[in-house]
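== Item description ==
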Amino acid sequence: MTPSFLPGLELSRQLVAEVRPLLAECFPELPCSAARIGTGSEVLGYDTVRSTDHDWGPRLQLFLRDDDVEAFAEPVRAVLSERLPAQIAGWSPWIEVTGVADWFARSLGFDPRAGVSTFDWLATPGQRLAEVTGGVVLHDGLGELDAVRERLRWYPDQLWWYLMACQWQRIAEEEAFPGRCAEVGDELGCRIETGRLVRDAMRLALLMERRHAPYAKWLGTAFSRAPSADRLGPALRGALAAEDWPAREAALGEAYRLLAARHNALGLTAALDESTRAYYDRPFQVLDAARFADALRARITDEQTAALPPVGSVDQFVDSTAVLTDPRLARAALRAVLDG
C-alpha cells in the first residue's frame, strides 16, 4: 500500500527528529549540521504525489566538520543504519553523511565558505543556486550552513545588473527573428523563435525579481509563483498559443512592454521608452532590447564586471543538461569563454 503523500521537507523533519537523539547518545561531543538541500523537487517546494515514484522518502544531509569526516563518517553511518527505523511515514530513510567542503565541491564546484568570486557566481547555474538556498536547514550545529546560504541568496548588485543586461541582450539578438520567419512562410521556425523569446522573457522576469531561475522542467513553475506572472504570464501564454504571426507579434509586444515597465520601476537606469518600434524598414515590431542592455552596462563601475563579455552566467549561454549538472563541465565552459 502506497503511503499517504507528505511533502518531502516534512518527511525530512520527521527523519531529523529520529536522528538527533541517536547522535546525542552515541556521539555526544560530535558537532554536526542537518539539512535537506541540493537536488530534489522537494527542495524547491515543487514536489507532488508524482515525485514519489523514484528517489523519494525522508532524506537528509548530515554535515560533519571537514576534519571529523575521516574518523567519524563511517561510525555515524553504521549507527544510523543499525538503529534508525526501517521506515518513517511509510518510506525508507536516506541520509548522506558528508563533510561541508566535499559536499559544496560536488554541488557547486567551490567552497563558498571562503567567499564567492565573480567566476564562481557565473559558473554556477541558477538551478544549483536555487538548490543550495532552497530546502531547509534543520540544525546548524556547525554554525556554517545558514551563513553560506545567505551569502548565496543573490548576486552582488553590479553582477546582477550585468546578468540582466546579458538577458536583455539575448532578447535583442532574436526579437526580430519570428517576424522574419513568418515573412518567408516558416511557421514552425516562427513558433520555435517565439518559444525561445518567451523563455528568455521568463528568465529576465525572474532576474528582475531576484529569484534564481531553475532548469527547464521547473522554469514555468518558478515563474508562475513570481509576482510578475499575474500580468506577464497571459501575454507569454498568448504568444505561444497564437495561431498566426499578427496575434503572436501583438502578444510578444505586450510582454516586452511589461518587461520594459518593470525595468523602469527598478530605477537602476534613466527611464527608457517602453514602446515597440519597427525593426529597420521591416514590417514587424520589436522593443530594441539592446537599449536596456546598454543602459544597465553603462551603470557598472566595477572594472572586472565591466570587462566581462556579454554572455552572462553559464546557463545563459549553455543549454546542455550534461554540462549544467556537472560543476566541472560548467566551470570549464565558462573558462573557455572567458579565455577565448
In short: The radius of gyration is 23 Å.
